[in-house]
Design brief:
This protein is 37% helix and 22% strand. By secondary structure, it is an alpha/beta fold. It starts with a helix and ends with a strand. The protein is built from eight helices and ten strands. It folds into two domains: 4-91, no CATH class; 100-279, Rossmann fold (3-Layer(aba) Sandwich), CATH 3.40.50.150. A hairpin with a 3-residue loop joins strand 1 (59-63) and strand 2 (67-71). The chain has a seven-stranded mixed beta sheet with strand order 5-4-3-6-7-10-9, with helices on both faces.
């Protein structure tokens, strides 16, 4: 039996890709479900065309606030078109659950701010994707709000609230804001920072993991646009943003080695990722 969510997905794919795209997406979905493979890239050509249209005129500029950014910056509509044109293929057969990275981040939060991870506190997962760490903090008793603009399955609806945009959240409503590889996709970093400040409660915390702009393989070090990243952050960005910093450094991606509790051993100033945890109260 097809539920309303599935019908909405079908309508979305049909609108974005037409009948051929819908057929290919359906074949991809069932191949992934039955065989664990993803053969048909229905929109790869269209997706590459969209990527060229959105990003080909962009270059990297640097801000003294500690980040590189696309110039000119693509519009919100252009970015939305890019994501919708590629989203379904790349997510076919994706496993929705907790990953090693989620557990590493959970261990970090437990070590630094365990008093926040309790019943009655509100956790916001920005760019929640598959849910991941939201499951772990729901088990801790926190109230969960996922901010996710895509049409990912609305699973576990009894566990949390999902909204498409942070602007839909009430002011002073969140105790902990979290984002894993989502901050580098925002369209206007200053506007987003203002929204973070607005929704965060006094003495609340923010945690980010982002690609490290100082890593030798990062596009910022090669003068290259890493599609679809719009921002490339240095640790300086978070140090200037935070009023209180609990951690802010580069790291090797310890989750790639199935390392959970020994994540500190992977600190590396020019590692592939930055992990930053702190407060932003004035």
């Amino acid at each position: 039996m097809i539920d309303k969510i599935m019908i909405d997905k079908i309508k979305f794919v049909l609108k974005e890709r037409g009948a051929r795209g819908l057929l290919a997406a359906g074949v991809n979905f069932y191949l992934a479900r039955l065989l664990g493979i993803n053969i048909i890239k229905a929109n790869s050509i269209a997706g590459n065309s969209t990527a060229r249209k959105v990003f080909s005129k962009c270059s990297l500029s640097y801000s003294e606030d500690g980040y590189y950014f696309l110039a000119p910056m693509p519009t919100v509509d252009d970015l939305n078109t890019y994501y919708s044109s590629l989203y379904w293929d790349t997510r076919a057969g994706k496993s929705y659950g907790v990953s090693i990275r989620d557990i590493v981040h959970f261990e970090i939060l437990k070590e630094f701010i365990s008093d926040i991870l309790v019943k009655g506190k509100v956790f916001m997962n920005f760019g929640a994707g598959h849910g991941g760490i939201s499951n772990l903090l729901w088990l801790e008793g926190m109230d969960i709000v996922n901010v996710e603009p895509s049409l990912l399955p609305q699973f576990y609806t009894e566990r949390w609230t999902t909204v498409e945009d942070i602007r839909k959240l009430k002011s002073n409503s969140v105790d902990l804001i979290y984002g894993s590889h989502s901050l580098e996709h925002v369209q206007d970093i200053d506007q987003f920072k203002a929204e973070v400040k607005r929704v965060l409660k006094p003495n609340g915390y923010v945690f980010w993991e982002v690609p490290n702009a100082e890593c030798p393989t990062n596009g910022a070090q090669r003068g290259r646009v890493d599609i679809p990243h719009t921002y490339y952050f240095e640790t300086t960005f978070f140090e200037k943003w935070f009023s209180k910093t609990l951690m802010c450094s580069g790291y090797e991606q310890s989750h790639c080695f199935d390392v959970i509790q020994d994540w500190k051993k992977f600190e590396d100033v020019k590692g592939p990722v930055i992990r930053a945890l702190g407060q932003i109260d004035d």
